[in-house]
Design a protein that fits this description.
With about 400 residues, this protein is of the alpha+beta class. It folds into 2 domains: about 230 residues, no CATH class; about 140 residues, Beta Barrel (Porin). It is about 45% helix and about 25% strand. A hairpin with a 3-residue loop joins strand 6 and strand 7. The longest helix has 18 residues. The two termini are about 55 Å apart.
Length: about 400
């Protein structure tokens, strides 16, 4: 038995009439149909359902008010039947009214839809037969209100905290209607309620993670049926059941320099999987004349790139790189009496570690020129980076 049917549409209907009355700037714009519809609403509000139907049945079909007229016909017939539930004629008349509404209007108005579906659900329980509309017209079971009955039945299970039945019934409701968001939401909430009762059930948690993720994607802010409050609630559920991984991707930028080439830039990226990439560019910023004047001993320009591997999650990374460089130093030929700058290019390798302290990264390593020949004299490097993303 239906415990409650909402009638908040009564004020909406009166408001709509007022808008139409005042839109022309004069109360004289109110037609006889408007007056009669207002009168019908007044009868309905006073629970005089027979008078309500008497007035509504005389009203002409109207593009704006048609759904309101049919809606209050359904509720009036339903309440007349509630006064005498043993009356088969009243039962059939109420059911015919409800099914006619569903065929004409379906779920154009969600509030109306739920109320009519509730009424129809109760009426179909009482008589599982073909509905007589008139002496010659018959309407068999229609898929539109069959789905409505599934939806309302599932809602009743949910309200009665029978979440397993609610979940299974919501899953059986065919999609492809404007009620999809409501159906998907209550299906998800039924599953969430079961999970809260038995959080150790692994299958429910996995299914819930998938459904919350799908819901947030399907009804995002760009979609017609996006509801910020519901979206926020589902988002919070998703966060509460999704394990937070320490392996968060990041992008860092900062400084790295060495004993020979002290001026440098370091870039570092780490993926969620624990593999990343680093690059550094370093230079001495020295001129050949400075070397000839022996202000400095050598000049070095170097580019290095390579993989980053997370050793200890989340704070210690290994860096291995390869690259190339350009090296200059003073070249003295005493035999010829020549003093010039000797220049050479070389292949470079690099090995180092990065210590992550929050968003700050401290790096240290060694750069090798022609590692096969000069393994014994690496250039130590040190750097600091800051996570920008």
């Amino acid at each position: 038995m239906i415990k409650d049917i909402r009638f908040k549409s009564y004020k909406k209907a009166l408001f709509l009439i007022a808008v139409l009355m005042f839109s022309s700037g004069s109360l004289n714009a109110q037609t006889a149909e408007d007056i009669n519809f207002t009168k019908a609403l007044s009868y309905y509000n006073n629970k005089d359902y027979a008078k309500t139907l008497e007035v509504l049945n005389k009203l002409k079909s109207d593009e704006v008010f048609d759904i309101y007229i049919d809606y209050y016909k359904v509720l009036s017939n339903y309440h007349l039947w509630l006064k005498d539930t043993s009356s088969t004629p009243l039962l059939r008349k109420a059911r015919a009214s409800a099914e006619t509404y569903m065929l004409k209007h379906d779920d154009k108005n969600i509030d109306f839809y739920e109320n009519v579906a509730n009424a129809l659900n109760e009426l179909k329980r009482r008589e599982m037969k073909v509905v007589i509309i008139s002496d010659t017209t018959f309407i068999p079971t229609n898929p539109k209100y069959d789905e409505a009955l599934k939806y309302v039945t599932a809602l009743e299970y949910y309200q009665n905290k029978d979440y397993l039945k609610a979940y299974e019934t919501f899953k059986s409701v065919n999609r492809g209607r404007s009620m999809d968001s409501q159906t998907d939401y209550y299906e998800l909430m039924s599953l969430y309620s079961m999970y809260k009762e038995k959080p150790g059930t692994k299958n429910w948690k996995t299914e819930l993670q998938k459904k919350t993720s799908d819901f947030l994607t399907k009804y995002n802010a760009k979609t017609k049926y996006h509801d910020p409050d519901i979206h926020s609630k589902v988002s919070n559920i998703n966060k509460s059941i999704t394990p937070v991984s320490k392996r968060q991707p990041y992008l860092s930028l900062g400084y790295e320099g060495g004993l020979i080439a002290p001026y440098g830039i370091r870039f570092e990226y780490m993926s969620k999987a624990g593999l990343g990439l680093f690059a550094n560019v370093r230079t001495s910023l020295a001129k050949d004349q400075d070397i000839l004047n022996e202000k400095i001993i050598e000049n070095k320009n170097e580019v290095m790139v390579g993989p980053v591997v997370r050793l200890v999650d989340p704070w210690l990374n290994l860096n291995l790189g390869v690259g190339a460089g350009y090296y200059s130093s003073l070249h003295r030929n005493d035999y010829k009496g020549v003093l010039d700058v000797g220049k050479t290019t070389y292949l470079a390798t690099y090995a180092g570690l990065t210590l992550k302290l929050g968003k700050v990264g401290l790096s240290g390593g060694a750069s090798f020129m022609d590692i096969g020949e000069a393994l014994f004299k690496p250039e130590p490097t040190i750097g600091i980076t800051y996570q920008i993303k």
